[in-house]
Structures are given as structure tokens and as C-alpha cells.
Amino acid sequence: MVDFPTLVLTVMQLLDEIAAPGTREREILERIDPDRMPRHVAIIMDGNGRWAKARSLPRVEGHRAGIRSVRETVEAAARLGFEVITLYAFSTENWKRPRHEVLTLMGLLKEYINRELNSLRDNNLRFRPIGRIDQLDSSVQRELQRAVEGTADCTGTLVQIALNYSGRQELTDVIRAGVTEGVNGTLSPDGVDEEWINNHLTTSGCPDPDLLIRTSGEQRISNFLLWQVAYAEIYFCPVLWPDFTTADLLTAVLEFQRRERRFGGLAPDGNVFTPTGEPGATS
Ligand code: FPP
To answer: Dihedral, CA atoms, 194, 43, 147, 94, nearest 10 degrees?
Structure first.
């Protein structure tokens, strides 16, 4: 049995690991209820190009700067004990960008794995790419495989990176798999239920996102985890991705905790919910 002063000391040490005393992060952290943390946070990292433009830099410099935010966010997610963090790094639509930008993004991804693999492993983080990975350059696939294998035994936060990802494509693939199984006689129409679909998504085995964050002030889902975000709280953050910090992540979690998730039901007091514009307001 842990005595009370030891417990307080342990909690303080845990808080110190996430945010140093006296900082803005710490001030937000102390308002967060550790018992109501989101299990899965998904992020649409947006605004790299605008960040670079504001500094008269080439767009790719925005992506390069965005790596710092990736590192900081993954680290914070692990310390906060999220089960899953999913980052939207490259959509199937992103192939339309100039070749140089696409190649830089793929290069940055390889660089990230190269630099971070040991740290992911040391921090017990499991790496999993989601999306049409088989269509990526073989050198990228090799690095991704190295990260998957290198962290396969890790039991902490699952770090999912969406690459060559499209929610519609993912659902198309699930339907195709179903039709194939049906034609082969291994699946009947009654066999298709939400559980079957979940098991055939690239995110199979992980809980749906509780919180979806999009940076840069844009307010769209952009074909990200279309099935999985059915009940996610969506938080639009004005900060451009390269400027996104732990304090912004904590602010999003705080906002998530202010909201009431009813999954289509009623509030516990049975009252009808009337949004008043105030975050988390119920009546
Ligand atoms: C959107 O900004 C961002 C992307 C398309 C790529 C995000 C990639 C990274 C942060 C780096 C690589 C990622 C990992 C996981 C290592 P945008 O270019 O659309 O910005 P804009 O809307 O301001 O033009």
C-alpha cells in the first residue's frame, strides 16, 4: 500500500515529466482530469506551406519544421498515456503536389524513422503505418518495415502514421474484401457487421479516435479516417503545424474533456442538450 505523501510525490514526478512547474503546459496539465483522457487522438497536421510562406521559405521547409512538432507530439502522447496517436502525413491526393515536394516528404519520413527508431523503441512505442503502403517507393517501404519490426514488441502508445492514405479508398478496399469473401463463399451478408468492417480497416485492432485535431484553422475532415471518426470530438486549432506544441495538444485535450460525449444518447441527467456556443455547455 502506497502512503499518501509517496503518492503525491509520484503524481508530482509524473506531472514534472510531462511539463515543468511554472510553464503554460503545466498550468493546462493541472486542469486536465487524468481519468478522462482520450484513448486515441488523431491529428491532421496542416499549415506547413503557410508557415514556410510567412517566412519567405520554400514550402518544403515548412514540412522540415513540422518534424519538430511530430517528435514533440509523439513524446507528449506517450507521456500522457494515449493508447494511440495517428498522424496524417500524406494523403492519396498529396501525389498531385510538385515532384520535389513529394520526394522531400518521403525523404523526411525516412529521416524521421532513421533518427527516431531507437527513441521509439526505448520509450516502448509501437510504430504502424496505415494506408496504401504497397504503392510507396520500395526504399520507403523498407524503412517503414524496419520501424514496424523494430518496435513490434513495444506495448506502450501505438504511433500510427497515415501515408498514401484515403478514407474512401480504405472503405473501398473493405468492400472489395467483402465481395471477394462473398464470391468465395466464406462470407454471407449477415456476416457483415460493424465488427467485421472494423477488423478489415487498416486501423484494425485499435480504438476509434476520441479526439480529432486539425491545425491551421482549416475546418475539414479531408478524407481522414472517415469510418473511424464517427463519434470523435473534432477540435480545430488555429496554430500552423510547425508551431504546434505540447501546450496546444493539452489545450485540445482540455477542450475534449469540457465536451459531453453522448454517442447519440441523452445526457446522464436526461436533459436535452442545447448548444449555447460555450465549449462544453449543456442544459
Ligand atoms: C500539410 O501542410 C502537411 C502535409 C501534407 C505533410 C505533413 C508532413 C510532415 C509534418 C512531415 C513528415 C511527417 C512525418 C510523420 C515524419 P500543407 O503543406 O498542406 O500546408 P498548407 O495548407 O499551409 O499549404
So the answer is: 90
